[in-house]
Specification:
Blueprint (H helix, E strand, L loop, with lengths): L3 E6 L7 H7 L7 H22 L11 E7 L4 E6 L6 H25 L20 E9 L8 E5 L4 E6 L6 E8 L9 H11 L6 E4 L2 E2 L16 H11 L8 E7 L5 E7 L12 E6 L2 E4 L14 E5 L9 H6 L1 H24 L1 H21 L1 H7 L4 E4 L11 E6 L2 E6 L9 E3 H7 L1 H4 L2 E5 L6 H9 L4 E3 L3 H14 L4 E4 L9 E2 L5 E3 L4 E2 H13 L4 E8 L10 E4 L2 H13 L10 E6 L3 H16 L5 H19 L6 H21 L1
Helix pairs in contact: 7-8, 7-9, 8-9, 8-13, 14-16, 14-17, 16-17, 17-18
Length: about 650
């Protein structure tokens, strides 16, 4: 016969608290299972602690949480073999603490219904009333001689406490589900919830005979106990069907805050949303959120992985979280650990650093723009691809260094390795005699290939700054950092090193015009466009046939202004109407053009076929120079093809 130990009402000041609990407190009702399992894990942990204190005779049972579903009775139960509760503890922790906390939370919620809540721990028991029309507790304390008790409540302030026939220490909470919440009586739904919220809880969770959680949390392990395959296996589990990460950082500290985690650098896709984080936030191995943007520095949001901390306040608004002092310190800690990892990789395994740089560099550059501390930490390991030939000397001096894995040998100056990449400081030092305080750079390896080749042929080193962040943000940032250095794109005004000193050779005795003057006049008449400035220069080259007959030049400052305007207006950059056509008078084609023009004069300019051919050749040379700078639209491409066909027809007629 069941003995009724107590009947009564839960003391609550807020009226109608249960309807609010059932309908208003949580957006996702599913978190009730997370809360019940978290409480069970707590109970198991407490039992382990009292056993350490010698309060329990004999060995502890294997920790386990068991979930059972009874569709006929419409019940879901969660059982643990933890510390259990006495009748007095049920009265205190369920009737008083849980519901007083619930009341306090409801009052806070009613004051600010728009508050953005991340998670709630320690208030979990009352969340069961969101999905259950009756909640029962069957529990037996670990204390010797304790009487098992049964508590029940039907979703009203009334409760009943009776004795129980339970014989094993631990607790079972049974929920009789509401009609509209029967989805939680489906095994697959429960498995999905366990995987989402409790997959890495340190206790075996069983549904029937099947273990439904991973249990092992790699981020809680020491880095020394994990190998590369362990990290990769964990990443593949978290992010299936994704490319393997480039590298990872293991976080582990217990002072001045507790933080564990593993962060991965994924390959960066062109469509990556840098504002959308993919790092999962845990608290004591319990999943809280798949967004923790307030904790992760903005420039590291595209990273993936896990952050786990008991020191991150969860029951606050997102704005309060952002301004929390501990959170700011955690953010700084994460930035520093990322910087330390990259610096160590640069020093100890430069080839691997270079391999990852195309993707990792985006984080590093963005971080330098956003975070002054991070910038100072990584400024010496920012590298750029260069035209510097890969001729690493076998004589490069080596030094012995201490690493986490033991002693290792590395280059005395890692930045001096000619592996196709260089730091800006090394570039400036290496080229100070040829182009002191000037940096030549390329932003488009396709359209600027001809220009790059010109610089290379004259022994001038070019850096490739061809990512979106380079062209729009990082080059201006570098100019602010290096105020005495001038950055020049290879297709801006050509450096004098590339120009051959011209000889004032008169090619038209009748007018005393030099070759350059005649060429300039020919192109001005042929193009008849005041927006185009014609310049004539002789470009240096050992192979004149390999140099371009003409190049389109856009002055650096003019182009920068246009790019900045387009960026502010959030539109694509249009090629400027005003630009310069630099004609290479040393090129054989241009010299042939001069000779043809002389024949046209003899025939009578303006009426001869030769004069028309000269005009069309000037236009064609300009077309070729322009098309390397910008793709033609449909109309311009059609006109270009028609002009080319006409030109080729005239040329073949002369053969």
């Amino acid at each position: 016969m069941t003995t009724v130990l107590e009947q009564g009402n839960i003391t609550i000041h807020t009226e109608n608290i249960f309807p609010i609990i059932k309908k208003s407190l949580y957006t996702d009702h599913e978190i009730f299972l997370r809360e019940l399992i978290s409480n069970s894990v707590d109970a198991i942990s407490k039992l382990k602690m009292v056993s350490y204190a010698g309060e329990i005779d004999g060995e502890l049972p294997e920790p386990q949480i068991e979930i059972k579903i009874d569709k006929d009775k419409q019940t879901l139960s969660v059982s643990d073999n933890g510390i259990g509760l006495t009748a007095e503890e049920v009265k205190k922790y369920i009737n008083q603490v849980a519901f007083s906390s619930a009341e306090e939370f409801v009052e806070k919620y009613q004051k600010d219904p728009n508050q953005q809540i991340i998670g709630h721990f320690g208030l979990g028991f009352y969340s069961t009333f969101m999905v259950a029309k009756q909640v029962e507790i069957d529990t037996l304390s670990h204390r010797s001689g304790s009487q098992a008790v049964h508590w029940s409540c039907d979703g009203s302030p009334a409760f009943e406490l009776t004795d129980s026939s339970r014989t094993e220490p631990g607790t079972t909470i049974t929920l009789t589900m509401m009609e509209e919440e029967t989805e939680y009586l489906e095994e697959e739904r429960i498995k999905q919830l366990v995987k989402t919220y409790c997959d890495f809880m340190p206790v075996t969770i069983k549904l029937g005979e099947e273990q439904v959680n991973q249990q092992k949390a790699p981020w809680k392990e020491s880095a020394q106990n994990l190998n590369d395959e362990d990290y990769l296996e964990f990443y593949r589990y978290l992010y299936p069907f994704q490319e393997d990460p480039l590298l990872w950082v293991h976080l582990n500290t217990d002072y001045p805050f507790v933080l564990n985690g593993i962060l991965y650098f994924p390959p960066i896709k062109p469509d990556v949303d840098v504002n959308k984080g993919q790092i999962k936030l845990y608290c004591n191995q319990v999943f809280v959120s798949d967004r923790c943007d307030e904790i992760i520095p903005e420039f590291l949001r595209p990273l993936r992985g896990v952050i786990d901390s008991t020191d991150i306040p969860l029951n606050v608004s997102r704005s309060a979280l952002t301004n929390n002092r501990t959170v700011r310190r955690i953010t700084d800690f994460i930035s520093k650990k990322i910087g330390d990892r990259l610096k160590a990789m640069y020093s100890e395994n430069r080839s691997e650093y270079v391999r990852c740089w195309e993707d990792v560099g985006t984080f590093v550059k963005f971080g330098s723009l956003k975070d002054e501390k991070f910038k100072k930490q990584v400024e010496d390991i920012i590298i750029f691809k260069s035209t510097l030939e890969d001729k690493k000397s076998e004589e490069t001096p080596k030094v012995e260094v201490q690493t986490e894995e033991g002693d290792a040998w590395q280059d005395a100056d890692p930045g001096s390795s000619n592996d196709g990449y260089t730091t800006l400081k090394d570039y400036l030092e290496r080229n100070k005699e040829k182009n002191e305080n000037r940096v030549f750079y390329c932003t488009d390896t396709g359209s600027q290939a001809t220009y790059v080749e010109l610089y290379k042929n004259q022994g001038l080193e070019v850096l490739f700054m061809d990512s979106f962040i380079d062209t729009n943000y990082f080059i201006p940032f570098l100019e602010r950092e290096y105020t005495d250095v001038k950055f020049l794109r290879v297709d801006s005004d050509l450096d004098q090193t590339l120009i051959e000193e011209e000889k004032s050779e008169i090619v038209d005795p009748k007018t005393n015009k030099t070759r350059s003057e005649l060429v300039k006049e020919l192109f001005e008449k042929a193009l008849n466009n005041k927006s185009i400035t014609i310049q004539t220069k002789s470009l240096k080259s050992d192979d004149l046939q390999g140099t371009p007959p003409a190049m389109v030049i856009v002055p650096e400052e003019m182009r920068r202004i246009q790019e900045m305007t387009a960026l502010l207006q959030q539109k694509s950059v249009d090629f400027p109407d005003m630009h310069t056509l630099l004609v290479n008078v040393a090129h054989p084609m241009v010299q042939n053009l001069v000779n043809l023009s002389q024949g046209a004069i003899v025939e009578g300019e303006g009426t001869s076929k030769t004069g028309e051919l000269v005009k069309q050749m000037c236009q064609h040379i300009y077309d070729l120079a322009l098309i390397s700078q910008k793709p033609f639209d449909a109309d311009n491409m059609k006109a270009f093809i028609e002009r080319s066909n006409t030109l080729l027809t005239q040329v073949t007629e002369r053969l």
